[in-house]
Amino acid sequence: MSRIEYPLPFVCLDIQLLTASIWIPVLLRSLRPKRVMTAMDNVVLVLSLVCFVTFSTAESHLDYYTAAVFEHAKIRTPNDSASSIIQRNLRFYFSAANEAKSQGADVIVFPEYGIIPPGKRDELKKFLEYIPDPKESRVNPCEQNDAYSSRPILNTLSCMAKANSIFVVANMGDIQKCENDLRCPEDGVFQFNANVVFDRDGTLVLKYHKEHLNFEFGMDLAREQQDSTFETDFGTFATYNCFDIDFQRMSEVARSPGIDGIMLTAIYGNRAPLKTTVQFWEAWALGNNATLLVANLQMPGDLSMGSGIFHGENGALGYTFNPDGLSKLVVARVPKLKSPEISPESNITVIYPDYSVNWNMTTDLPAECSLKLLNQSNDISTDYRCTEENITFSFVPLKESSGHIETCHNGLCCALDYQTKGLNDQFFLGAFSGMYSHFGRYFWCEEDCVLARCDPFGDSPCATYPTKSLTVFEHVHLSGNFSSEVVYPSVLESGSKLVSRTEWRHQRSNQNETSVIFQNGHGRNLLVVGLKGRCFERDPPYQQ
Fold it and tell me: Which UniProt keyword terms apply here (predicted)?
């Protein structure tokens, strides 16, 4: 595929020719013939340098960069070969990159396991490629085509970046021989879940091995803490994988001086009430005051969907959350650090292998998604399912249309002041402080305060969380005495939609009281208002 050309170099070339036509004859008349070629070379060189510096400086003075995230509805049928699965998904990737560049994107982020499937160790081998270390030598698979002809993922991603002059952040599998390593598995290789980053000319600039595997028993854990940061011409960023977002390291890096944002590849499930994906993405960006670009896999029947671009206190610049089985590209302008606010000019496009279509449909979720109520989906492409966070809240029901209530759990006390136009659903105030259990295998410390639309199930008066609400709230003030280093605030309305940041704020006092305040005179059908604290210092050691 040939490199896309841009209008600026041609404008620059016209300026060179015009200037040369005026000044070269004047210069040449004053020179002897033997000096003519040297003079012409010098003129063209100077004009070229002036032009290059002019346009490079103009780019560096932009107050924003344009980012794209791709939520891919992965293609895989039972009888497909590994080669067929890889090629079919990469066709979508190339189409998404082309569309992203047509909208001016500087970077595109792809989801976790968007090219290859998760699976057992032996099954995964045919999907893995040896990824060289870009710190040891220059690696450009598109230019070194012969050496990478048997590694189609690396070759295609590199050519995709080069053809579109765009940074590419993608997820794949890395296989490394390890016979002389005492930790080497019996089959003689390490298999890593890896993110790769390619620059605008297709050069591999970073390889990152996932530091927190999530039931990925076909993969090996990173051998050491990874350097996840990389430089671009629009800032310094870090990349992580999915489950990494639940742990301290990614949060620490995001808050480090000089880091402009995190680019996350994900196959992340929706878990109510405080981890509906787009709710959590925005809350994480707000709690860390960081930019987060996250590409999630579109697999709603298997809990996973919801991608977007989130910018610190501005919240969502653009996002998608729709169980439609379509691959979608989200593009938005992102302000650079310490730059003035700008219009994000976000856009969503449906991506097909050979064409794309502007997407302007509204999200229409089913009223219920809980696996407790609906069991497994019949079609993972469109039959949306969610699950509940494994948290035993101390719940208190809302009984009046307005009022003040409190509840406490293990030293965390949550208080709620609220005003509605009448309670038309069951709402509860919940508090939780303790060790969170992620499907009984992974554990970490949380402090949570939540106001949630909630229905009974079994013996519990509040056990499932519908996606729709008929209760109109005009005012909510939710607060708690958090000890956590980082607290993630969120506000969702009916349909699991993010409420505009113009209608709510969050704040933290010196006494560790953290609060969310929502105010809208016309009211909104709120679904969840939450504060999720992460007490990292009390986390047990992570174990695969």
Answer: Hydrolase
